[in-house]
Amino acid sequence: MLTASQLTSLQAILPADRIHLDAETCERYGQDWTRYTTPRAAAIVFPMGIEEVQAVVRWANAQGVGIVPSGGRTGLSGGAVAAQGEVVVSLERMNRIDGFDPLARTVRCQAGVITAALQQFAADHGLYYPVDFASSGSSQIGGNIATNAGGIRVVRYGMTREWVAGLTAVSGSGEVLECNLGLAKNNAGYDFRHLFIGSEGTLGLVVEATMRLTDLPPATTVLLLALPRLADIMAVFHAFRSALTLQAFEFFSDLALTHVLAAQQATAPLAERQPFYVLLELETAVQSQEEAVLQVFSACLEQGWVCDGVIAQSQQQAKSLWRLREGISAAITPYTPYKNDISVVLSRLPQFVARLQGVLARDYPDFEVLWYGHIGDGNLHINVLKPASWALEDFRHACEQVNGQVFALVAEFAGSMSAEHGVGLLKRDYLGVTRSAEEIALMRGVKAVFDPNCIMNPGKLLA
Ligand code: 2HG
Ligand code: ZN
């Protein structure tokens, strides 16, 4: 899809073996984990340094070609899909970790560093990188920053944003910007770092970052609790959080459990099935905290909020409980689920959930609807499974109809239409649920400053 002269000028920037035009590579790198858009990349390029990224961006501006920044492509909103003949800039060959500063407890990462590699680097130095999720073995730091990735420990450590001490970006106009210099304190004007975090590649490419590390977590206890009613979940949350420090507070429905058990060929963790389950990880460094776990657990049983539960007795058992939660998304991928990733403030969650249950039970009678997510953050992943007999477009259309009601509820409760997965292509038309027209107009203005020719990830986030 590139003209002969476009290709010739691109070949003057990068060696031929780092420009891929073949259909297989274009398909592989032209999409993320979503399966709702047909990839149509013109080329995939693999720069190996900041100057090469800058040269590609300048070339794209001169040629009027769109760029899709590409990390581990584990996104769920189509943010890394090349759907209209763009050049995909894969950062995967820029995967060096260096510049470890033990005093500042920071480390310098190129954008293509795999999340798990940073976690391992931290562990090797007696420290901890706490942002964690099921895709940490494939996702990359640059992508995590561009999407402000969240995951399973946000309730304790916050999102990726909290862990970026500085970043280097190549803006859409080809300028190299050093944002925040890794400083702990820096009030010298606007902090562009935070504009790039979560910008989904629409302002430029994050090429390097200085990431913060922290202390290793103390010993923890993992529990799985069974709940007859979702309405009681915040009471359980409050009871545990008042007594102990939460590392995670996740939930899933029985239908989600059914699918994950089938996919993993595992057996149910509790003798009796209940409609909902909570997976907690609690800090238990000292014996009094271990006792507190049992006390709160008993209190929840007495109240009738919880009717059964299991406390992991070994690391291995803790891992297998976690696999049930973390494996859900992969278990249902074959059903091309229609995904919602919504959030409200915790205090409004019980009322919101009650109303949402009503809407989904009434309007999705023919589809399997799975509930799971980071409920301790007020974040629900609602996944609707496509029946095999339905065509993808018809299914999507049917889901979008119901989604109008879901998003009306999100708006009524002043929630987010995308809590952690970003907006990308799939949620773009719903941005107005959470952001005002004035805000969206300002976003366009910001984009025009950093990316005047609109070459950066065109069509994502903003139409
Ligand atoms: C998770 O929390 C991921 O498991 C994926 O964010 C969520 O599949 C989803 O909807
Ligand atoms: Zn999630």
UniProtKB/TrEMBL annotation:
Cross-referenced PROSITE patterns: FAD_PCMH
Gene3D superfamilies, sorted: 3.30.465.10, 3.30.70.2190, 3.30.70.2740, Uridine Diphospho-n-acetylenolpyruvylglucosamine Reductase, domain 2 (3.30.43.10), Vanillyl-alcohol Oxidase, Chain A, domain 4 (1.10.45.10)
Keywords of the record: FAD, Flavoprotein, Oxidoreductase
Record has Transcription regulation as a keyword: no
GO biological process: respiratory electron transport chain
Cofactor entry: FAD
Domain of life, per lineage: Bacteria
GO MF annotations, alphabetized: FAD binding; oxidoreductase activity
Pfam families membership: FAD-oxidase_C, FAD_binding_4
Record domain FAD-binding PCMH-type: where: 37-216
Signal peptide per UniProt: none
PANTHER family for this protein: D-2-HYDROXYGLUTARATE DEHYDROGENASE, MITOCHONDRIAL (PTHR43716)
Family, similarity comment: Belongs to the FAD-binding oxidoreductase/transferase type 4 family.
Protein name in UniProt: D-2-hydroxyglutarate dehydrogenase
Species per Swiss-Prot/TrEMBL record: Aquitalea magnusonii
Organism placement in taxonomy: Bacteria, Pseudomonadati, Pseudomonadota, Betaproteobacteria, Neisseriales
